[in-house]
Amino acid sequence: MSNVRIKELLLLLLLLQLLLLLQLQQQLLLLFSTTTTKNTTTTTTTTTTTSTTTTSTTTTTTTTTTTTTTTTTTTATTTTTITTTTTTTTTTTTTSTTTTTTTTTSTTSTTTTTTTTTTTTTTAAATTTTTTITTTSTTITTTTTTTTTISTTTNAVTTTTKSRDCTTMAVQLYYFPIRGRGQAIRYICLDNDIELENVNIGAEWATKYKPLMPFGQVPVIEDGGVKVAQSCAILRYLGKKAGLKEPSDPLVAARVDMINDQGEDIRGAYVRMIYGNYETGKDDLIKDAKAKTQFIETLMSGWGSDFITDTISFADYNLFDLLDILCVLSPGFLDEFPTLQAYFDRIAARPNIKKHRHSDEFKAWPVNGNGKQ
């Protein structure tokens, strides 16, 4: 075969191959036509269920808020010659479902609170993917019973005051059988019809009576089972018991305390001398007592009253007894004090006091316990 013929055959074969390639390309294009990309995004919004129940005595209010669901689907298609790529991406985002319950209860004694929730179902779908979110709220019943009992106990304290008849209810005076600090107490009781029982503590003082006394000393009175100590406190108490009128003017009332305190100063010096240095201290005591008594004389002369004030007081019985023992210590002691002499005579003339001072009992009692006077 000639060369020309061979070349013609080769050219023909080449053309046939080209035709076949063209046909093959067309068939491939028919078979693989598109490249598809699917992107699906599903978003489920937060589902929040809020139940608010408010219960009072007669009104119930229930508020329920349900959900909103938004579904977005996006599809994109891309075609590429020869190469085919298919990509499918599905993204699902689901937020939490939160249930908030607020309960307010107002009752008087018993409170019952019931909370009932709502069931919410949300369905999100994209192309061939369906996501279902179901939230079921279970009914929760809470019963609260509060019982408050306030118990108030009142302890009744009853104070019974029995009327005392001064002629039948005796006040006991614990003292020695002497005049001493007990005599003014006897005077105020006698002059105001307060029955007084003298309890002679005598030789049993240290062993029997002293431990029972509030301050371990006498005189002490006992009235209605209650002991009262200290001489001036006893006199004040008996004055109130007798109903002696007390000055309403504070300045006039101050007279009583002034004279009583001055008298106590004189009496204190007297007691120290009697039980201390009687023989050597007597003259000095009388001199000092007269100087202090002069102040009382001057004041009472200026006031011009029958007693320290217009009416007799506890201090008058105390002063009367003091002047009496000074007259025993120094006869004629009151000669220099005319106002006080008249005052002394006035009280000495009061019937019950006069009778007592003339009694054998009074005459038998020494002024002091050591035999000095």
UniProtKB/TrEMBL annotation:
It holds the Pfam family GST_C_3. GO terms for cellular component: cytosol. This is glutathione transferase. It comes from the Eukaryota. Transmembrane segments: none annotated. Residues 39-67, 90-115 are annotated as: Disordered. Homodimer. Its EC number is 2.5.1.18. PROSITE patterns: GST_CTER (PS50405), GST_NTER (PS50404). InterPro entries: Glutathione-S-Trfase_C-like (IPR010987), Glutathione-S-Trfase_C_sf (IPR036282), Glutathione_S-Trfase (IPR040079), Glutathione_S-Trfase_N (IPR004045), GST_C (IPR004046), GST_pi (IPR003082), GST_superfamily (IPR050213), Thioredoxin-like_sf (IPR036249). Residues 249-367 form the GST C-terminal domain. Keywords: Signal, Transferase. Residues 1-21 form the signal peptide. GO terms for molecular function: glutathione transferase activity. It comes from Dreissena polymorpha (Zebra mussel). Residues 169-246 form the GST N-terminal domain. One of its GO terms (biological process) is glutathione metabolic process. Belongs to the GST superfamily. Pi family. It is an enzyme of class 2 (transferase).
